[in-house]
Structure formats: structure tokens, C-alpha cells
Design a protein that fits this description.
Layout lengths: L1 E3 L2 H6 L5 E6 L5 H13 L2 E6 L19 H10 L4 E3 L3 H4 L17 H5 L3 H16 L3 E5 L3 H13 L5 E5 L2 E2 L15 H6 L1 H15 L5 H13 L4 E10 L13 E9 L2 E12 L2 E5 L2 E2 L11
Parallel strand pairs: 1-4, 2-3, 2-5, 3-4, 5-6, 7-12
Antiparallel strand pairs: 8-9, 9-10, 10-11
Helix pairs in contact: 6-7, 9-10
Bound molecules: adenosine monophosphate.
């Protein structure tokens, strides 16, 4: 496996069908599941590690975001990736960018409403990575559901010849969706944070029992979070998988997303709900049998 700092080197090392996994590092099994999917489909697997300042507001956690390149390199090497692209700021933004990619519409609700400018930062860096790495297939987690909608739309609108694949959420054994930000949680917060997955998984169970009302599903997802004193719910929303527009009823491919603040840490979770024959089937993601590598020494 090679570690490179420039777009040119990342392109030079790629051959055949190129699978690409963009990340901000501090990797866990959620990221590794994307590397695994790329490894199955592609000849070259390139993983980028870049904490993108453009997608953080001045009040957010850019400075404290966890970073450990040596640990990340060991993890992606073990997963069988070919190239780690870890650009310095000067490669990604040689000068202050005057060009931004704005995806309207799909970014107006949920995360886009709460984090103004966030998806401009995401769309801009992903467009630059797509242009510079030139992959055939790019892998994103369903964990960041609205980000996936935004990236798909940006890719189509800008005619990138890249297939965007959405991959299931990987969860701790107790249900909590893996996130690099979980390392911010103290032990009591870590226990309280389970309320997010408890809520969306209860809503998934209700979908299986036949519930189709957006309001009722949102209420079911919100209940455990509202009941947890240490957590503040930002939203529980049933949304269209293509447009991220809120839905009154489950009548098309959707995701039920929750966002909440646990102390100073913002966490997200969701279940995607897709049609299968005549049924609506919720995707509850994949549960680890044991504690994630996030909490273990690399
Ligand atoms: P990040 O490093 O947080 O920017 O995430 C990089 C990629 O990994 C994004 O496509 C995320 O959606 C994905 N990802 C993060 N957490 C998970 C998870 N628990 N399960 C699946 N994918 C994830």
C-alpha cells in the first residue's frame, strides 16, 4: 500500500476500475466496510483522509476532531486498500477557494438547516476529490443520509462519470451507529447515546408491523431521545431518499433520520426504508459482535 500527498500521485497509482472511499480519518469499522465494498468491486482501492475545514462552521469541532494517521494507515492496509491519499491543506486548497459547489433543494432541510454552509463544504471537497482522484465508483455510508443524497445529486448535476454507492450503517453491538465523534462521549453519555438507535430501530419495527404515517414514525423515533435527560433532539424526520424532502407518509424510498446533541457532541442516526416486492423493508444496518476499534489500541 502506498501513502501519497498529491492528486497526481493518487491518479498515477490507479489502474483498472478505481474504487474510492473519502473519509476524514480516525477510522472505524463503518469506514472499513466501505473499503471492503470497494475491494470486492474494484481493481484499485483508494482511501482519502482529509479533515475538510470548509465543512466546519467556526463554532464547530475542526480543531478537536480526532486525528491519527498512523493508526488509520494500519487499518486501511489491513483492509487491503492500495492507496491512501492524505493531502496537506496546500494540495487541497492551494489558495483560498473562490469556487464553491452549492447543491440547493436537497440541502435545505435537517442537517442543512441546522448547519448552514456545511453541505457547500462537503459538495466542494467531494467534487475536488472526484476531479482529482478520478475514480469509477465512490463509496459513501448511509449513516450520513442527507450527505449521500447531496453527493448523488452533485454527481449527476456535474456529470461526473462516477457511480455513487451507498453502504449500510455499521453499529456497535448495543446499536449505537459508529462515528469518529463517539470518542468525545464520556461513559454516561455513551450509554445515553443509545437512545438514537433505540428510536430509529423502534421506528423500523413499526414499519415492519405496517405503520406508514410519517408523523407516527417520527414520534416513535423521537420518544427514547426525548426521554433521555442528557440529550437534546434536533429533529426526527421521515425524508425522501432522492430529495431529502420531509414525507407525511411512507410511500416511496425514504429514510427516517434523527439528530441529537449529547452534551457538546452532535450525533446522527437513521434507517433507510426501501421497497421490496409489496413490502417496505427497513435497513437496520450491521451490528458488530464486539466493541469497535474506536475504543481499542490500534
Ligand atoms: P467521515 O470520516 O465521518 O467523513 O465518514 C466517511 C464516510 O464513512 C462517509 O461516507 C460516512 O457516511 C461513512 N460512515 C461513517 N460512519 C459510518 C457507519 N457507522 N457506517 C457506515 N458508514 C459510515
Amino acid at each position: 500500500m502506498k501513502i501519497v500527498r498529491t492528486f497526481a500521485e493518487a491518479r498515477d497509482l490507479a489502474s483498472g476500475r478505481v474504487g474510492f472511499v473519502p473519509t476524514m480519518g480516525y477510522l472505524h469499522e463503518g469506514h472499513i466496510s466501505l473499503v471492503d465494498a470497494a475491494r470486492r468491486d474494484c481493481d484499485t482501492v483508494t482511501v482519502s483522509i482529509f479533515v475538510n475545514p470548509l465543512q466546519f462552521a467556526p463554532t464547530e469541532d475542526l480543531a478537536s476532531y480526532p486525528r491519527d494517521l498512523d493508526r488509520d494507515v494500519a487499518l486501511v492496509e489491513a483492509a487491503g486498500a492500495d492507496v491512501v491519499f492524505a493531502p496537506p491543506l496546500s494540495e487541497m486548497y492551494p489558495s483560498d477557494p473562490l469556487t464553491r459547489v452549492t447543491v440547493s433543494g436537497v440541502t435545505e432541510t435537517m442537517e442543512g438547516a441546522i448547519r448552514p454552509g456545511h453541505f457547500d463544504g462537503v459538495a466542494t471537497v467531494v467534487a475536488k476529490l472526484f476531479a482529482g482522484v478520478a475514480p469509477d465508483v465512490a463509496y459513501f455510508g448511509r449513516k450520513d443520509a442527507q450527505q449521500l443524497v447531496t453527493v448523488r445529486r452533485m454527481t449527476a448535476d456535474l456529470s461526473f462519470p462516477i457511480r455513487v454507492v451507498g453502504s449500510p450503517i455499521v453499529r456497535e453491538s448495543d446499536g449505537l451507529a459508529l462515528s469518529s465523534r463517539n470518542t468525545y462521549l464520556d461513559p454516561a453519555q455513551r450509554i445515553a447515546a443509545r437512545a438514537l438507535s433505540t428510536g430509529v430501530l423502534a421506528a423500523a419495527a413499526a414499519v415492519r408491523r405496517g405503520e406508514r404515517s410519517g408523523g407516527i414514525l417520527e414520534e416513535i423515533a423521537a420518544r427514547p431521545v426525548d426521554a433521555e435527560p442528557g440529550i437534546d433532539l434536533d429533529y426526527a424526520t421521515l425524508a425522501d431518499q432522492e430529495t431529502a424532502a420531509p414525507l407525511g407518509a411512507l410511500d416511496r424510498p425514504a429514510f427516517l433520520a434523527v439528530a441529537a446533541r449529547v452534551g457538546r457532541t452532535r450525533l446522527l442516526d437513521n434507517v433507510h426504508i426501501d421497497p421490496d416486492g409489496g413490502e417496505w423493508v427497513p435497513d437496520e444496518g450491521i451490528r458488530l459482535a464486539e466493541t469497535s476499534i474506536l475504543y481499542r489500541e490500534a
